[in-house]
Amino acid sequence: MKTIGLFFLALVLSHNIVMSQDSLRVYKSGQITLQRAVQDIDSIKFENKSNAATNHYDSLYVYKAGISVNKSATVDIDSLIFTKPAPLFAQIVYTSDLHYGISRTFRGGSSVDASVVNLAMINQINKVPAATFPADNGVNAGKPVGYVDYVAITGDITNKMNKAPTATVSWAKFNTDFLNGISTKNQKGLNSEFLLTCGNHDVSNAIGIFKTMTPATDNASMLNIYNLMMKPTPLKTTATYNYYNDKPNYSKDIAGVHLMFVVMWPDSANRIWMEKDLSNVSKTTPVLIFTHDPVACESSHFTNPIGDHSISDSYENQIEERYKSDVIEQRGWVAFVKIHPNIKAYFHGHSNDNEYYTFTGPDGGINLKIYRVDSPMKGSISGNDETKLSFQVLAIDGNTKTLTVRECLWNTSGAASAIVWGTNSTISLK
Do 155 and 197 contact (CB within 8 A), yes or no? Predict the structure, then answer.
């Protein structure tokens, strides 16, 4: 057995080897016969000498931890190339709390339907690729936006039916306006993909509330979110969908970052799924959480801890865990983050505004970056000052593990508004 250095190996095969930190590829007649990540290779060795005079070896072995993980006959190798890693970038438009079914003051109207407001925002989202990022030292700063890979929405697509039309009617408008109205394209020129999760209004419509709704329940929003994101076979129907059994928790790897979409809030029940999901994720892979409720939790969304645990005016039973106290619930989440320090940021809606802040927990101990996003209908600031209406544009650099979140003000001067970049935040995901 003889170990041959990469330079000598190149001379033996009379081919160039391009060094990088990505993968080794073995080619025969222009076709890849082997590809392995560099970190999975300890050594490359020629073995089985067939001609002592010419130092010709019949086989090439690839080793990891002293074990052969591949063997190729030299006659089946044309070249060995260490490939350069593909650039890892992604751009995401993020909004929340669309609240189809209600109205607001907007562009001179005193009671403007949510569909009109959301369509105005969609019109601006569709212009994002033609915009140029500000020179703010963030990811892709000063460059044309060019593309939108994903559109993320963290719930309250519909409004509770005690103050709005049925969830079926509201979802139909969302389907027309968003799912068929967003025209942005991703880096491959395909339609931007939607990443959806639910909010408390979507869930209440599916399971009911303590107030009278007509009908008492309508699971259209939850059903469609589940089918679109989870893609079950067969698809769930109005009759077969059950919120308590069919929660659309899911994850997606984007540009070297692991995104987790968590139903309502990461309570102890959701953390069972999260733990299982993260068991398949490298501890060096950054994780971003997208959910509806603020990181500090919303007590009224938990399951009623009193009596028969039924839905009440204080507990709406949208989160599976029975409520104890804000401090206890937060401590449970903090403990989870400490076990998974690669969780780098948390995105939420519900109490809407454009805000970047740090969550340290009730007792300190963590420093989790939080991104709160505005609502087109119920923003705490933009609800009264429509010039502050905004959504966020996320830019991820998976090569340097950097995230930039930029506020995109879309209604600074009414119908004639151009996109105006507002505040921004850039963090390391390492």
Answer: yes
Whether the link from the prior residue into 215 is cis, omega within 30° of 0, is yes
Distance CA 290, CA 306 (A): 30
Number of Cβ within 10 Å of residue 170's Cβ equals: 28
Cα 264 from Cα 203, distance rounded (Å): 9
Domains of the chain: 2-83 (no CATH), 89-428 (3.30.750.180)
Please choose, from the candidates 367, 366, 326, 373, the residue with its C-alpha nearest in 3D space to the C-alpha of residue 348: 373
**Which backbone phi and psi does 98 adopt, to 5 degrees?**
-75, -30
pTM of the model: 0.83
Name residues whose C-beta falls within 8 Å of residue 383's C-beta, 6 or more positions apart in sequence: 104, 375, 377
Query: Closest Cα partner for 257 from 37, 427, 24?
Result: 427
Question: Mind listing the pLDDT tens digit for each residue in 223-253?
Answer: 999 999 999 999 999 999 999 999 999 999 9
Residue 328 has which token pair? 């206890």
- Report how far apart the first and last C-alpha atoms of the chain are (Å, whole number): 41
The DSSP code sequence of 262-279 is -SSS--HHHHHHHHHHHT
The 10 Å CB-count burial string (b at 16+, else e) for 347-368 is bbbbbbbbbbeebebbeeebeb
Instruction: Specify the amino acid at residue 316.
Output: E
Exposure of 355 in the CB half-sphere (CA atoms within 13 A)? 18
CA distance 119 to 51: 75
Token code pair at residue 101: 């079914």
**What distance in Å separates the CA atoms of residue 35 and residue 41, rounded to the nearest whole number?**
11
The amino acid present at 17, given as its one-letter code, is I
pLDDT per position as a tens digit, 371-380? 999 999 999 9
The CA distance from 245 to 17, in Å, is 53
- Name beta bridge partners: 257: 254
Q: What residues contact residue 341 under an 8 Å CB cut-off, 6+ apart?
A: 283
When mean pLDDT is compared across 66-75, 136-145, 164-173, 308-317, the lowest value belongs to 66-75
Q: Are 107 and 415 in contact (CB under 8 A)?
A: yes
